[in-house]
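Tokens in:
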């Protein structure tokens, strides 16, 4: 038997094919471009704080700038992000310096720059603490009545350092402003020592705030105590709209929804002839509020805002004037123009028979009288039976 694998011809063919493949692989490898290893990069880290009047603080106003040997900015970092620590990553090998600067409310006595350092591995810089310039102090007082249209006057006391030593050539730059809780605004153009109380501040507190400045000291914020602003009562303005047919569109234009009667402490149906107190939380900054009842409309009156609430009484006379049916109380702030609305319903007077319990008549009395009759009747019946037995 002849074996295919013992034949010389197949081995020669196979040998030629293998050589060709090996040669082709060598050509492919030779044609591939050479690839260089990427340059290594490193990190530069450290920490920086601020000494403010002897107290160490982390400040977002302290910045660290990494500069290369040509004094070109490579990166900039803020030390407050990581509790006073900072880090620059992917820094190429070379020579660098770090510049520490403090600005804003904590002006530094001087900035600081490191000596040049080489980056050939990860670098940890020594801790740095910049010293803020000392603060100034002054007392600001405000006199006058915080009522719309009245004039307030601010007085700035002697400007000193924190030890109480007077500071020469100090300047002040102030603004009047007002605030309500978490919000507030400056009063446009009110940069002098006096201000006429504007109506926009009603319901908020008004005061004087600003900066003290002097050479060698950092700008220092000072302010006066806020005074609660009120407005004198005005003549009530005309009703917002002529009648209830226009009321819906008016309220919609102001994005005002009619609150339920219960939000004002009113029953589902207010009874005529019986006074009812309506008490609401007032959201606008006003001293006084005008109140109208629609459908007519009927002017209810002008009421003071006390502790953020408006309280009024719907008298029997007003309820009779409104008549039975659905109605709306509309509140309009005299200063802010804010509007709130409460829906309520007026019912007719309760029938006289239904008022017996309210007038003190005891509904149990008829029952007691009927019971007495029953007892009396039972006694007569017993007496008749005894008489019948005796006659037998």
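Residues out:
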């Amino acid at each position: 038997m002849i074996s295919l694998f013992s034949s010389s011809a197949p081995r020669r063919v196979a040998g030629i094919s293998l050589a060709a493949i090996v040669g082709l692989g060598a050509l492919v490898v030779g044609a591939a471009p050479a690839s260089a290893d990427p340059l290594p990069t490193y990190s530069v880290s450290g920490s920086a704080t601020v000494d403010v009047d002897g107290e160490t603080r982390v400040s977002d106003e302290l910045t660290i700038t990494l500069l290369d040997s040509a004094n070109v900015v490579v990166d900039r970092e803020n030390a407050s992000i990581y509790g006073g620590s900072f880090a620059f990553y992917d820094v190429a090998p070379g020579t660098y310096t770090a510049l520490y600067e403090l600005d804003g409310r904590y002006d530094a006595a001087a900035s600081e720059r490191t000596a040049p350092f080489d980056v050939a591995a990860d670098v940890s810089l020594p801790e740095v603490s910049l010293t803020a310039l000392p603060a100034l102090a002054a007392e600001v007082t405000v006199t006058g009545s915080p009522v719309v249209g009245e004039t307030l006057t601010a007085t700035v006391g002697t400007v000193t350092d924190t030890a109480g030593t007077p500071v020469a050539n100090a300047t002040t730059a102030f603004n009047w402003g007002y605030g309500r809780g978490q919000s507030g605004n400056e009063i446009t153009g009110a940069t002098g020592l006096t201000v006429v109380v504007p109506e926009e501040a009603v319901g908020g507190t008004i005061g004087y705030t600003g900066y003290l400045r002097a050479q060698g000291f950092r700008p220092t914020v000072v302010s006066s105590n806020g005074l609660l602003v009120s407005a004198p009562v005005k003549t009530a303005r005309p009703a917002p709209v002529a009648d209830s047919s226009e009321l819906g569109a008016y309220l919609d234009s102001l994005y005002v929804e009619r609150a339920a009667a219960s939000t004002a402490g009113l029953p589902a149906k207010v009874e005529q002839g019986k006074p009812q107190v309506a008490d609401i939380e007032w959201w606008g900054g006003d001293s006084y509020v005008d109140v109208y009842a629609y459908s007519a409309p009927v002017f209810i009156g002008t009421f003071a805002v006390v502790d953020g609430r408006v309280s009024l009484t719907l008298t029997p006379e007003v309820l009779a004037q409104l008549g039975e049916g659905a109605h709306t109380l509309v509140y309009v702030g005299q200063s802010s123009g804010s509007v709130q609305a409460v829906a309520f319903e007026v019912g007719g007077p309760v029938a006289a028979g239904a008022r017996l319990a309210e007038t003190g008549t005891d509904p149990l009395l008829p029952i007691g009288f009927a019971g007495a009759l029953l007892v009396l009747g039972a006694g007569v019946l017993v007496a008749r039976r005894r008489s019948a037995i005796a006659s037998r």
